[in-house]
Amino acid sequence: MTLRTAVTTAIAVIALGSGRGHAQPASPAKIDPAALSALQGMGAHLRSLKIFQVEAATTDEDVLEDGQKIQYAGNTSILIQLPNHLRAETTSDRRQRLYLYDGKSFTLFAERVNYYATVPAPPTLHELVDKLEDTYDVSVPLVDLFRWGSPGWSTAGIAAAVDVGPSVVAGTTCEQYAFRQDDIDWQIWIQQGAYPLPRKLVITTRTDEARPQHSAVYTWNLAPSFNDDTFVFDPPPGAGRVKLTQITSAAGAAK
Question: Which domain CATH number covers 65?
Answer without folding.
Answer: 2.50.20.10
